Amino acid sequence: MNLLVFNLATDAHDPILGFTTLWLNKLAKQVQSVSVITMRSGVLNLRENITVYSLGKELDYSEPHRAMRFYRFLYEILQSKSIHLCFSHMTPVFTNLAAPILKILGIPVVTWYAHPSLTNNLKLAHKLSNKMVTSIPTAYPYRHDKLVVVGQGIDTHLFTPSRASINHKDPLILAVGRLSPVKDYSTLIRAVTHLISCTNHRIKLLIVGNPTSTKDEHYVQLLHQQVQELNLASVVTFQPAVSMYKLPDIYRQCTVYVNLTPTGFGDKVALEAMACGKVCLAANTGFRETLGIYAEQLLFNHADSQDLAEKLAYILSLSDEQRQAMGNYLRQQIIHLHSLERLINNLLQLFRQLTHA
């Protein structure tokens, strides 16, 4: 099978989308070739049967220039080999640009989308795609008539528990992700204030991530201001984003991980933390199945700092052995529902059904 893949970023060191290089390598093991048209590229740690065509956003090419490159690359790929299926990852606009041509050629299109934003581009991509795929049901905001849930694709060989016990003088609460209002870090900072005042816990909070827009940069300023106003400068630390290969060590250091995004997202960072055997508190009810028997203890009301503080107090009141048992269970849930192997198997099964291979 020869695959055509559309991707936003193909860069092993990208803090947000670096994981797609893992997906591509796993897919490439099972197929003859993979041709990737990507908005931007960077470090490419890819198998020999993967070819990457960058539209040049990393070179600041204009949108018209990138559109011309898209069609030139698409033409080159379709002329050079027999493409059996197109997989579009978080790029509904690429689906819409290519689907009319691919339909004429009888090439099925599968589009991945996991985000609460319901745009006209997504609605059109839904119509033009043979199937839509997503990580969890609540991460897809449109009709489910074409939807197949395939899991998130966490590399459970990279994201593993620590082999040695980690002893902190103070419990460490961790949150990882883009520094953006939707991530709701302000609720976590308020919850830490409640926790300290009500329980006298000596705790530390580490927030890892970068802003990616002017709006995000303003939000970061507000977060630092909030920390100062609440006298938490000695408690809260901000750390820049790192590549996915450095994240496991950060996850392993924490006592508890907190994911604050609301239902409708499919934040992989929460699943990565669980794969590392860490207890994860979440505001996203879409994670209920993943949290399994611990869902009631680990889900908190979105933007409710008091509820989060109470859940944190409960987790911190447990013994190390109890938290480890909970973390071990969550890791097994990730392996069962969201492992990279399961994702690739689900995708390939779908691809073969659509191509009758």
Automatic annotation (TrEMBL):
UniProt entry keywords in alphabetical sequence: Transferase
Coiled-coil boundaries: none
Gene source species: Gloeomargarita lithophora Alchichica-D10
Gene3D superfamilies for this protein: Glycogen Phosphorylase B
Name assigned to this protein: Glycosyltransferase
UniProt-listed SUPFAM superfamilies: UDP-Glycosyltransferase/glycogen phosphorylase
PANTHER family hit by this protein: GLYCOSYLTRANSFERASE WBBK-RELATED
One GO process term, biological-process aspect: lipopolysaccharide biosynthetic process
Residues annotated as domain Glycosyl transferase family: 165-332
Gene Ontology molecular function: any one: glycosyltransferase activity
